[in-house]
Write a structure and sequence with these properties.
With about 325 residues, this protein is of the alpha/beta class. Helices cover about 50% and strands about 15% of the residues. Strands 1, 2, 3, 4, 5, 7, 8 and 9 form an eight-stranded mixed beta sheet that branches. It has a two-stranded antiparallel sheet with strand order 6-10. α3 (about 100-115) runs parallel beside α4 (about 130-145).
Length: about 325
Protein backbone atom coordinates (compact mmCIF):
# COMPACT_ATOMS: atom_id res chain seq x y z
CA UNK A 1 0.00 0.00 0.00
CA UNK A 2 1.41 3.35 -1.04
CA UNK A 3 1.53 6.40 1.24
CA UNK A 4 -1.48 8.13 -0.38
CA UNK A 5 -3.58 4.99 -0.89
CA UNK A 6 -6.91 5.00 0.93
CA UNK A 7 -7.21 1.99 3.26
CA UNK A 8 -10.95 1.93 2.77
CA UNK A 9 -11.67 3.32 -0.71
CA UNK A 10 -15.22 1.97 -0.85
CA UNK A 11 -16.28 3.91 2.28
CA UNK A 12 -14.74 7.20 1.11
CA UNK A 13 -16.19 6.82 -2.31
CA UNK A 14 -19.59 6.00 -0.86
CA UNK A 15 -19.58 9.01 1.43
CA UNK A 16 -18.47 11.32 -1.32
CA UNK A 17 -21.18 10.08 -3.62
CA UNK A 18 -23.83 10.43 -0.89
CA UNK A 19 -23.04 14.04 0.02
CA UNK A 20 -22.08 15.35 -3.40
CA UNK A 21 -24.81 13.88 -5.52
CA UNK A 22 -27.48 16.28 -6.86
CA UNK A 23 -30.64 16.71 -4.74
CA UNK A 24 -33.83 15.23 -6.08
CA UNK A 25 -37.03 17.26 -6.34
CA UNK A 26 -38.55 15.31 -3.46
CA UNK A 27 -35.64 16.18 -1.23
CA UNK A 28 -35.89 19.88 -2.12
CA UNK A 29 -39.60 19.86 -1.39
CA UNK A 30 -38.92 18.22 1.97
CA UNK A 31 -36.29 20.83 2.81
CA UNK A 32 -38.65 23.58 1.73
CA UNK A 33 -41.40 22.18 3.94
CA UNK A 34 -38.99 22.02 6.89
CA UNK A 35 -37.94 25.65 6.38
CA UNK A 36 -41.53 26.81 5.99
CA UNK A 37 -42.56 24.89 9.12
CA UNK A 38 -39.71 26.48 11.05
CA UNK A 39 -40.73 29.96 9.90
CA UNK A 40 -44.35 29.22 10.78
CA UNK A 41 -43.32 28.15 14.29
CA UNK A 42 -41.30 31.35 14.68
CA UNK A 43 -44.28 33.45 13.58
CA UNK A 44 -46.53 31.64 16.07
CA UNK A 45 -43.97 32.16 18.83
CA UNK A 46 -43.83 35.89 18.03
CA UNK A 47 -47.64 36.13 18.03
CA UNK A 48 -47.87 34.38 21.40
CA UNK A 49 -45.12 36.64 22.73
CA UNK A 50 -47.05 39.73 21.63
CA UNK A 51 -50.24 38.27 23.14
CA UNK A 52 -48.68 37.62 26.55
CA UNK A 53 -46.96 41.01 26.58
CA UNK A 54 -50.28 42.67 25.78
CA UNK A 55 -51.99 40.62 28.48
CA UNK A 56 -49.35 41.68 31.00
CA UNK A 57 -49.80 45.32 30.03
CA UNK A 58 -53.59 45.07 30.44
CA UNK A 59 -53.15 43.39 33.84
CA UNK A 60 -50.79 46.11 35.07
CA UNK A 61 -53.11 48.79 33.73
CA UNK A 62 -56.11 47.28 35.55
CA UNK A 63 -54.10 46.95 38.78
CA UNK A 64 -53.05 50.59 38.47
CA UNK A 65 -56.69 51.60 38.22
CA UNK A 66 -57.60 49.41 41.21
CA UNK A 67 -54.88 50.76 43.47
CA UNK A 68 -55.11 54.36 42.25
CA UNK A 69 -58.83 55.03 41.74
CA UNK A 70 -58.35 58.70 42.45
CA UNK A 71 -56.58 59.24 39.13
CA UNK A 72 -59.88 58.64 37.32
CA UNK A 73 -62.19 60.30 39.80
CA UNK A 74 -64.83 58.53 41.84
CA UNK A 75 -66.99 56.01 39.96
CA UNK A 76 -65.62 57.22 36.64
CA UNK A 77 -66.99 60.74 37.05
CA UNK A 78 -65.09 63.24 34.94
CA UNK A 79 -63.49 66.16 36.76
CA UNK A 80 -64.54 68.25 33.75
CA UNK A 81 -68.23 68.09 34.70
CA UNK A 82 -69.92 69.61 37.78
CA UNK A 83 -69.33 67.50 40.87
CA UNK A 84 -68.76 67.44 44.62
CA UNK A 85 -65.10 67.20 45.63
CA UNK A 86 -64.18 64.83 48.43
CA UNK A 87 -61.05 64.47 50.58
CA UNK A 88 -60.69 61.62 53.10
CA UNK A 89 -59.37 62.17 56.62
CA UNK A 90 -58.87 58.53 57.57
CA UNK A 91 -56.82 56.84 60.27
CA UNK A 92 -54.28 58.34 62.63
CA UNK A 93 -53.32 61.92 61.81
CA UNK A 94 -49.54 61.96 61.81
CA UNK A 95 -46.58 62.64 59.58
CA UNK A 96 -46.03 60.06 56.81
CA UNK A 97 -49.49 58.55 57.33
CA UNK A 98 -52.44 58.52 54.94
CA UNK A 99 -53.87 61.39 56.99
CA UNK A 100 -50.69 63.48 57.12
CA UNK A 101 -50.94 67.22 56.61
CA UNK A 102 -48.95 67.05 53.37
CA UNK A 103 -51.37 64.58 51.76
CA UNK A 104 -54.52 66.27 53.04
CA UNK A 105 -53.35 69.74 52.03
CA UNK A 106 -52.53 68.53 48.51
CA UNK A 107 -55.95 66.94 48.15
CA UNK A 108 -57.70 70.03 49.50
CA UNK A 109 -55.86 72.36 47.13
CA UNK A 110 -56.74 70.17 44.15
CA UNK A 111 -60.37 70.01 45.28
CA UNK A 112 -60.69 73.77 45.70
CA UNK A 113 -58.85 74.62 42.49
CA UNK A 114 -60.92 72.25 40.31
CA UNK A 115 -63.12 74.51 38.20
CA UNK A 116 -66.10 72.15 38.21
CA UNK A 117 -66.11 71.31 41.92
CA UNK A 118 -69.12 72.99 43.52
CA UNK A 119 -68.28 72.19 47.13
CA UNK A 120 -65.80 70.20 49.20
CA UNK A 121 -66.54 67.37 51.61
CA UNK A 122 -64.05 66.32 54.28
CA UNK A 123 -65.06 62.71 54.95
CA UNK A 124 -63.75 62.15 58.46
CA UNK A 125 -63.10 58.77 60.06
CA UNK A 126 -60.23 59.22 62.50
CA UNK A 127 -59.54 58.99 66.25
CA UNK A 128 -57.13 61.94 66.04
CA UNK A 129 -53.38 62.21 66.32
CA UNK A 130 -50.74 64.91 66.06
CA UNK A 131 -51.80 68.43 67.10
CA UNK A 132 -49.22 69.85 64.68
CA UNK A 133 -50.57 67.94 61.66
CA UNK A 134 -54.16 68.75 62.64
CA UNK A 135 -53.35 72.43 63.06
CA UNK A 136 -51.65 72.60 59.67
CA UNK A 137 -54.73 71.20 57.93
CA UNK A 138 -57.08 73.44 59.93
CA UNK A 139 -55.21 76.59 58.90
CA UNK A 140 -54.96 75.48 55.26
CA UNK A 141 -58.72 74.98 55.08
CA UNK A 142 -59.20 78.48 56.50
CA UNK A 143 -56.83 79.89 53.87
CA UNK A 144 -58.49 78.05 50.98
CA UNK A 145 -61.93 79.22 52.11
CA UNK A 146 -60.69 82.82 51.97
CA UNK A 147 -59.18 82.31 48.49
CA UNK A 148 -62.30 80.51 47.16
CA UNK A 149 -65.22 82.16 48.98
CA UNK A 150 -67.72 80.63 46.54
CA UNK A 151 -66.91 77.06 47.66
CA UNK A 152 -68.05 75.81 51.02
CA UNK A 153 -66.47 73.01 53.02
CA UNK A 154 -68.52 70.36 54.81
CA UNK A 155 -66.98 67.94 57.30
CA UNK A 156 -68.92 64.67 57.39
CA UNK A 157 -68.01 62.34 60.26
CA UNK A 158 -68.66 58.65 59.66
CA UNK A 159 -67.57 56.23 62.42
CA UNK A 160 -65.46 58.60 64.50
CA UNK A 161 -64.37 62.22 64.39
CA UNK A 162 -62.51 62.70 67.64
CA UNK A 163 -59.59 64.69 68.95
CA UNK A 164 -57.40 65.94 66.08
CA UNK A 165 -60.02 64.78 63.58
CA UNK A 166 -62.56 67.08 65.21
CA UNK A 167 -59.90 69.82 65.26
CA UNK A 168 -59.79 69.57 61.46
CA UNK A 169 -63.58 69.28 61.21
CA UNK A 170 -64.00 72.56 63.08
CA UNK A 171 -62.43 74.36 60.10
CA UNK A 172 -65.42 73.45 57.90
CA UNK A 173 -68.39 75.71 57.28
CA UNK A 174 -70.68 72.98 58.57
CA UNK A 175 -70.21 69.61 60.27
CA UNK A 176 -72.46 66.57 59.80
CA UNK A 177 -72.37 63.15 61.44
CA UNK A 178 -74.25 59.88 61.69
CA UNK A 179 -76.50 59.55 64.76
CA UNK A 180 -74.15 56.81 66.06
CA UNK A 181 -70.86 58.55 65.23
CA UNK A 182 -68.39 59.28 68.02
CA UNK A 183 -67.69 63.02 68.14
CA UNK A 184 -65.57 65.28 70.34
CA UNK A 185 -62.75 64.21 72.66
CA UNK A 186 -61.37 67.75 72.78
CA UNK A 187 -58.27 67.27 74.90
CA UNK A 188 -54.53 66.56 74.87
CA UNK A 189 -52.65 63.55 76.21
CA UNK A 190 -49.08 62.29 76.45
CA UNK A 191 -48.41 58.92 78.06
CA UNK A 192 -45.49 56.67 78.82
CA UNK A 193 -44.01 54.27 81.38
CA UNK A 194 -41.66 54.40 84.33
CA UNK A 195 -39.11 51.62 84.94
CA UNK A 196 -37.33 52.91 88.06
CA UNK A 197 -38.54 50.27 90.53
CA UNK A 198 -38.16 47.47 87.98
CA UNK A 199 -34.53 48.49 87.39
CA UNK A 200 -33.87 48.57 91.15
CA UNK A 201 -35.21 45.04 91.51
CA UNK A 202 -33.19 43.73 88.60
CA UNK A 203 -30.09 45.60 89.73
CA UNK A 204 -29.59 47.74 86.63
CA UNK A 205 -27.84 51.10 87.03
CA UNK A 206 -28.96 53.94 84.73
CA UNK A 207 -26.22 56.29 83.51
CA UNK A 208 -27.19 59.52 81.75
CA UNK A 209 -24.77 62.29 80.80
CA UNK A 210 -26.32 65.59 79.77
CA UNK A 211 -25.54 69.28 79.61
CA UNK A 212 -28.44 71.21 81.10
CA UNK A 213 -30.44 70.39 84.21
CA UNK A 214 -33.57 69.44 82.24
CA UNK A 215 -32.06 67.85 79.15
CA UNK A 216 -33.03 64.35 80.35
CA UNK A 217 -36.51 65.46 81.39
CA UNK A 218 -39.15 62.72 81.52
CA UNK A 219 -36.54 59.96 81.21
CA UNK A 220 -38.58 56.80 81.97
CA UNK A 221 -35.59 55.22 83.72
CA UNK A 222 -35.27 58.02 86.29
CA UNK A 223 -37.66 59.16 89.04
CA UNK A 224 -40.19 61.76 87.91
CA UNK A 225 -39.17 65.25 88.97
CA UNK A 226 -42.19 67.24 90.30
CA UNK A 227 -40.93 70.51 88.79
CA UNK A 228 -40.42 68.91 85.40
CA UNK A 229 -43.87 67.33 85.62
CA UNK A 230 -45.39 70.73 86.39
CA UNK A 231 -43.52 72.32 83.49
CA UNK A 232 -44.65 69.65 81.05
CA UNK A 233 -48.24 70.18 82.20
CA UNK A 234 -47.99 73.81 81.04
CA UNK A 235 -47.09 72.58 77.56
CA UNK A 236 -50.10 70.28 77.45
CA UNK A 237 -52.35 73.07 78.73
CA UNK A 238 -51.10 75.43 76.03
CA UNK A 239 -51.70 72.88 73.25
CA UNK A 240 -55.14 72.17 74.72
CA UNK A 241 -55.97 75.88 74.68
CA UNK A 242 -54.95 76.09 71.02
CA UNK A 243 -57.38 73.25 70.32
CA UNK A 244 -60.17 75.02 72.25
CA UNK A 245 -59.50 78.32 70.45
CA UNK A 246 -59.71 76.59 67.06
CA UNK A 247 -63.03 74.95 67.94
CA UNK A 248 -64.48 78.21 69.25
CA UNK A 249 -63.30 80.04 66.12
CA UNK A 250 -64.75 77.43 63.80
CA UNK A 251 -68.03 76.79 65.60
CA UNK A 252 -68.72 80.24 67.01
CA UNK A 253 -71.96 80.63 68.93
CA UNK A 254 -73.28 77.29 67.67
CA UNK A 255 -71.65 75.63 70.68
CA UNK A 256 -74.29 75.18 73.36
CA UNK A 257 -72.39 73.18 75.96
CA UNK A 258 -70.24 74.18 78.92
CA UNK A 259 -66.66 73.38 79.91
CA UNK A 260 -67.42 69.65 79.73
CA UNK A 261 -67.11 70.01 75.96
CA UNK A 262 -63.39 70.61 76.37
CA UNK A 263 -62.72 67.98 79.03
CA UNK A 264 -61.85 65.15 76.64
CA UNK A 265 -65.31 63.58 76.68
CA UNK A 266 -66.93 62.39 73.47
CA UNK A 267 -70.54 61.93 72.44
CA UNK A 268 -72.72 60.21 69.88
CA UNK A 269 -73.64 62.13 66.75
CA UNK A 270 -77.13 62.77 68.04
CA UNK A 271 -75.80 64.08 71.38
CA UNK A 272 -73.21 66.18 69.52
CA UNK A 273 -76.03 67.82 67.55
CA UNK A 274 -77.70 68.93 70.79
CA UNK A 275 -74.39 70.35 72.05
CA UNK A 276 -73.71 72.27 68.83
CA UNK A 277 -70.65 70.21 67.91
CA UNK A 278 -72.32 69.26 64.61
CA UNK A 279 -74.93 70.99 62.44
CA UNK A 280 -76.93 68.00 61.31
CA UNK A 281 -77.14 64.24 60.81
CA UNK A 282 -76.31 63.14 57.28
CA UNK A 283 -74.02 60.94 55.20
CA UNK A 284 -71.50 62.19 52.61
CA UNK A 285 -73.90 61.22 49.83
CA UNK A 286 -76.74 63.15 51.42
CA UNK A 287 -74.59 66.26 51.85
CA UNK A 288 -73.47 66.08 48.22
CA UNK A 289 -77.00 65.55 46.92
CA UNK A 290 -79.14 67.67 49.22
CA UNK A 291 -76.84 70.49 50.39
CA UNK A 292 -74.16 71.01 47.75
CA UNK A 293 -76.55 70.01 44.98
CA UNK A 294 -74.11 67.81 43.03
CA UNK A 295 -74.70 64.11 43.59
CA UNK A 296 -71.65 63.02 41.60
CA UNK A 297 -68.56 62.81 43.83
CA UNK A 298 -64.92 62.97 42.78
CA UNK A 299 -62.32 61.78 45.30
CA UNK A 300 -59.28 64.09 45.40
CA UNK A 301 -57.54 62.26 48.24
CA UNK A 302 -53.88 61.51 47.32
CA UNK A 303 -53.36 57.76 47.58
CA UNK A 304 -49.98 56.14 48.29
CA UNK A 305 -48.89 53.27 46.09
CA UNK A 306 -49.37 49.78 47.57
CA UNK A 307 -45.62 49.51 48.26
CA UNK A 308 -45.54 52.94 49.93
CA UNK A 309 -48.55 52.04 52.05
CA UNK A 310 -46.95 48.77 53.18
CA UNK A 311 -43.56 50.27 54.01
CA UNK A 312 -45.21 53.27 55.67
CA UNK A 313 -47.32 51.09 57.96
CA UNK A 314 -44.31 48.90 58.74
CA UNK A 315 -42.19 51.94 59.63
CA UNK A 316 -44.90 53.42 61.84
CA UNK A 317 -45.41 50.09 63.60
CA UNK A 318 -41.69 49.75 64.32
CA UNK A 319 -41.44 53.33 65.58
CA UNK A 320 -44.49 52.89 67.82
CA UNK A 321 -43.04 49.68 69.23
CA UNK A 322 -39.69 51.29 70.00
CA UNK A 323 -41.37 54.26 71.69
CA UNK A 324 -43.57 51.93 73.72
CA UNK A 325 -40.58 49.91 74.92
CA UNK A 326 -38.73 53.07 75.92
CA UNK A 327 -41.82 54.53 77.55
CA UNK A 328 -41.82 57.60 75.31
CA UNK A 329 -45.24 59.01 74.51
CA UNK A 330 -45.79 61.65 71.84
CA UNK A 331 -48.15 64.51 72.55
CA UNK A 332 -51.42 63.88 70.74
CA UNK A 333 -54.91 65.28 70.70
CA UNK A 334 -57.44 63.16 72.51
Amino acid sequence: MTENQNPNPNLQTGERSRFNRPRTSKEWKLIEKMVMASQDEQRKARRWGIFFKSLTFVYLFVMLMVFNPGMWGSDGVSVGSPHTALVDVKGMIMDDSEASADRLVKGLRDAFEAEQSKGVILRVNSPGGSPVQSGLVYREVQRLKAVHPDKKVYAVITDIGASGAYYISASADEIYADPASLVGSIGVVSDGFGFVEAMDKVGVERRVFSSGDNKAMLDPFQPLDPKQKEFFATILDDVHQQFIDAVREGRGDRIKGDKALFSGLFWSGRQALELGLVDGLASPGQVAREIIGEEEIVDYTPRPSPLQALTGRLGVAIADRVMAVLGIGAVRLQ
